[in-house]
Amino acid sequence: KKALLEVNNLKQYFPIKGGVFGGTVNHVKAVDDISFVVYEGETVSVVGESGCGKSTTGRAILRLDDPTSGDILFDGENLLGLNKAKMRKKRKDLQIIFQDPYASLNPRQTVRQILEEALEIQNVVSRKERRQKVEDLLQTVGIGAHQMDRYPHEFSGGQRQRIGIARALSVDPKLVICDEAVSALDVSIQAQVLNLLKELQQKFQLTYLFISHDLGVVRHISDRIIVMYLGKIVEIGDKDSLFENPQHPYTRALLSAIPSINVGEKKKERIILKGDVPSPIDPPAGCRFHTRCPYAMDRCAVEEPKLHSLSEVEHKAACHLLEDGPYDYS
Ligand code: SF4
Ligand code: MG
């Protein structure tokens, strides 16, 4: 297994306007010291509620926002060491697909113009070959060549997402970050787009970082899953092990909210968390989840839990309950 992406101790703190008070500047600690690896050809999902730092992580990897600290190694090269021009070239290898492709597709350009422009910017094929490449790309994502002179508004949401995917693939990327890429679509269309992404992964040897608020959606597409809460990784593991034996109380709560999924052999009860996600400006001390955790103990409010290794296959979770191995929740 070759690591394609290595994120080490990534922090992304955003200063708050007007946050200077008594000499201190307040920050939103959107991502607070996370590390993970993505291997070539796999799909790693990053899951959590909105505000947990998952999109921020994706944006930092692409350097859409420069991180506060940490390392991001891509193919062995530290992206944070690249200047703007070099990073722009690198974008050929790292593409992103957003939730709402409509917002990123120029409404005044036809689909063909959109794709030709992407090809031109990265200089992927000669001018002569461009038209053929656009036709091929559209066919690959299931859109007929006869539709290429239409504008984005003439397509359905699912078709527009296919166009967004075609644009991302036009430059032959290695890593594609999908940020809530199917979240805005109807369930049946979601399944179609997820299947398409899987097919394309095989065909073009793609690696995916799949960002979603919904564990149910990522279930079929993921090889491994990272669960985030308030800027921290709380659980990371191989998909089957995470679904069959979730170990962090937060992961268990997220899974219990998906009606079609059973946790372990036992009939699953819905775990309702109290309160809302606290503010990332001044996150709770100790375990950040302690204000909502049904298992919280005194020490949880003061002592930050480490990621504990739980099995032979990769499975780790950050919770004091797991110091001596997996916890028996039955
Ligand atoms: Fe709950 Fe404590 Fe574990 Fe945090 S460390 S998840 S508060 S039991
Ligand atoms: Mg987001």
From TrEMBL:
Domain ABC transporter: 5-255
Annotated Gene3D superfamilies: P-loop containing nucleotide triphosphate hydrolases
Species, as recorded: Cytobacillus gottheilii
GO MF, one example: ATP binding
PANTHER family per the UniProt record, alphabetical: D,D-DIPEPTIDE TRANSPORT ATP-BINDING PROTEIN DDPF-RELATED, TRANSPORT ATP-BINDING PROTEIN
Keyword Transport included in the entry's annotation: yes
Family: Belongs to the ABC transporter superfamily.
One Pfam family of this chain: oligo_HPY
SMART domains: AAA
Keywords from the named record: ATP-binding, Nucleotide-binding, Transport
Matching InterPro entries: AAA+_ATPase (IPR003593), ABC_transp_ATP-bind (IPR050319), ABC_transporter-like_ATP-bd (IPR003439), ABC_transporter-like_CS (IPR017871), Oligopep_ABC_C (IPR013563), P-loop_NTPase (IPR027417)
UniProt key word Transport: yes
UniProt protein name: Dipeptide ABC transporter ATP-binding protein
